[in-house]
Amino acid sequence: MLLTRALRRVASVRPAALRSASTAAAVQDATAAVVPKPPPDPKTVADMRRPEWWYPKARLSKRTIIYHGGPTNSGKTYHALEALKRAENGVYAGPLRLLALEVHERLNDAGVYCSLFTGQERREVPFATHASSTIEMVSLQERYDVAVIDEIQLIGSSERGHSWTRALLGLDAREIHVCGALDASELVEDLAKKCGDDFVLKTYERLTPLKPLPVLKGWRDVRAGDCVVTFSRDDIHAVKRLIEEAKPGTKCCVVYGTLPPETRAEQARLFNTEGNGYDVLVASDAIGMGLNLNIGRVLFRRVLKYAGNAPSEARLASVAPEYRDDARRLGQLPADRALVKQIAGRAGRMSTAFGEGGGGVAAMDERDAQYVRKALNAKPDKVTKAGLFPPSELLAAFARETKIASKTDITAVVDAFVNVCQIDAARYALAGHVELKKVATQLDVPLPLEDMVTFCAAPCNSSDRLAVAMLTEYARARARGERAGPNVRLPKHKPRTLRDLHDMCGKHNVLDCYLWLAHRFPETFPESDAAMAQKRRCIGLVAAGLASRRLQLPEKKEADAKSVAAKLVAAKKKKPSAKKRGRVVRGKRSK
């Protein structure tokens, strides 16, 4: 009966179709119009158990995955880049813009034409055979002779791990050289076999020794080539002030995550250049990767790191007993031991003045010194699961095929997807969705799902109110179909206070986001040249602020820093002098 009605509908509504097509085809069209399709199974749409098949081009040929594994300063990345230089064509993919820029410059200096592709910048070199990019920007459409994926252990990151998984599974290359700690070697080997690829493991040992040193007694014992590490940006500036007051004539460079990448690179250049007075570096964990630094000793001011919220009792149970009171009272936890080991490993690079004697690592109190020593000897936890996040096309298909109240409410779409998705839990774990939902909630703009996914991936500091507010304005302009400029006002004078400096870094982040969006939505954000000019001026103002010895610090931070300095002096007076113990306290920087 249903088929008869369908045929009648065909005859009355689509006579031309019947005349021009076969009866069978017309019947199929008509029945499709009147016979309802069975509702799609959400689990079928959200099936992510075989993500390697998202990249059919890469599955057409067998690849060779070469794992260069070892600690910091072991030469693993050097050997991978040498293979890239020899290749007919190739690509480098790393976690940071600074690393992509460094490889871009290194290859071009070696006579290998190499373009640069990051989220904010594209330098296309004529006749280039190679490309250097950030991990998110690496192209999967090209066929490469050799590809290099740096810091492969980040494949297990809950925030960005899916970008390494995408590159590892999706790059169409004869050889893929992956570099990083050995923690992820077994996982990468398993994924290579899953893809039908060959796997080769090459291991490396540290090229120079790394020695634990006695506790530092005071700021006067800081010497040329030292890097003092602390995990608070305000504390970084306070320590800088204390060292420069304790050692007149000494100037300190600073490096931390919210500084513009160009500023970090310039601070590293100043520190690495001998004879200019910038002999000491004060830094956060931002030195863990991305910068080549001539460090002789790494000195941990403290190993505590702000945890965001007061840790739960379950989390406290895993914290070393001597740090639990601080964790409860201050909301600070000791930095992960793998991170401490990675930072300490920056001391004594082979190609620097400190390479021959090796590097040293110390702390400024005995409790932290013991923690650092344990971190150096600790075996790293293995990376057992690769981060995985659905492509925006898959999320969009899921939203279309399932009954979700609002197809533009990405938090609802992601929540529904996470609830029903199927995943190979032995090899993969969902990554990136928590941060995506956080940014989407902050934006709260009715954008098409694909556009919202793009906006949520913008390099916006989600803890900076100005950056989030401006990203929201950009999203609204996109939703309204309007054009938008950067809309950032820069002051005429350099930063006078630490608050001014932080605000300037926030404005740089806004301009960075605008340039990033301009590459993806040029019709909405057409003023990239103006944004780039403002960005350069912003970088200059930040540099001027850092160079100023009159930068006003918050009173509490300065008082806290002086209190710690007083305690160090008091502790030193209680001990016998270094001369009596027959130990050399200070050394000179090697030439």
From TrEMBL:
Residues 187-396 form the Helicase C-terminal domain. It is found in: Mitochondrion. The keyword Transit peptide applies. InterPro entries: DEXQc_SUV3 (IPR055206), Helicase_C-like (IPR001650), P-loop_NTPase (IPR027417), RNA-DNA_Helicase (IPR050699), SUV3_C (IPR022192), Suv3_C_1 (IPR041082), Suv3_DEXQc (IPR044774). It is an enzyme of class 3 (hydrolase). It catalyses: ATP + H2O = ADP + phosphate + H(+). Its cofactor is Mg(2+); Mn(2+). GO terms for molecular function: ATP binding; hydrolase activity; RNA helicase activity. GO terms for cellular component: mitochondrial degradosome. Its EC number is 3.6.4.13. Gene3D superfamilies: 1.20.272.40, 1.20.58.1080, P-loop containing nucleotide triphosphate hydrolases. Transmembrane segments: none annotated. Residues 570-591 have a biased composition (Basic residues). Keywords: ATP-binding, Helicase, Hydrolase, Mitochondrion, Nucleotide-binding, Transit peptide. SUPFAM superfamilies: P-loop containing nucleoside triphosphate hydrolases (SSF52540). GO terms for biological process: mitochondrial RNA 3'-end processing. Pfam families: DEXQc_Suv3, Helicase_C, SUV3_C, Suv3_C_1. Residues 567-591 are annotated as: Disordered. This is RNA helicase. It comes from Pelagomonas calceolata.
